[in-house]
Amino acid sequence: MATLALTSGGAFGNQDDQVLVDALPYLDTEYNDADRQTALRLIDQECKIFRPTKNYLKHLPVPDFDVFLTPCMLKEHARMSKKQEMPKLDMSRCELPCPSGTSRAGDKVQWRKAIKNAKAQNEHLVMRQINLELMEEYAAESYLRRNRELEQLCTEAERELRRTKEQVMEIHARRKMAQLDAGRQLKELEGSWVAMVTNNYRMELANNQLAATNAQMAKRLRIDPSALEKS
């Protein structure tokens, strides 16, 4: 099986502390949780010694986050930093207080203000009534059209997601098939290697047996093997 030797101590680790990381995860299934923890530990150690050498954001200007702060936001941030309560809404414009005053002229001024306030609030209520009538007549179709647009966007997003998932699954399938094919070739090569080693071992045994037989025959015939080799 094709393996990659990595040291747990980085580039300067000891040779005795090597960990073999398999390169065919789809083929081998004998790994357990301890092997997973070892791989995570190696990744963590590699991340600690990794130093980026390129600034990928140097072509961009330095971001100015204060540009998004409006005066109102700055005021609210200052209020929140001081832990002050938010001012309550002024509901006086929605009230119709009775005019008050002692003199007749004062009464007229107060009455004019009260009448003006009443007209403004009445106009506001009339506008609300008109908006409600318009919404009752046209809002339903508008909301339905908006819902159809959202459904179309959702359908397109789901279609894109499904297409992306299919591409990912296709990549995984191709990688799995490639690794399984590589595993098959490795097994065939491993079988050939075992067969050759076995044949070599058998040949070595036969040679040793033949050498022993020759030595016995030379001894029985009283022949010096070294003399035969020199001749």
Automatic annotation (TrEMBL):
Q: Where in the cell is it found?
A: Nucleus
Which InterPro entries does its entry note?
Answer: SPF27
Keyword Transit peptide (UniProt): no
A GO-annotated cellular component: catalytic step 2 spliceosome
- One Gene Ontology term from the biological process aspect of the record: RNA splicing
Domain of life, per lineage: Eukaryota
Coiled coil spans: 140-174
Q: Which UniProt keywords apply?
A: Coiled coil, mRNA processing, mRNA splicing, Nucleus, Spliceosome
Q: Which Pfam families match?
A: BCAS2
Describe the family membership recorded for this protein in Swiss-Prot or TrEMBL: Belongs to the SPF27 family.
Query: What protein is this chain from?
Result: Pre-mRNA-splicing factor SPF27
- Name the species this protein comes from: Ancylostoma ceylanicum
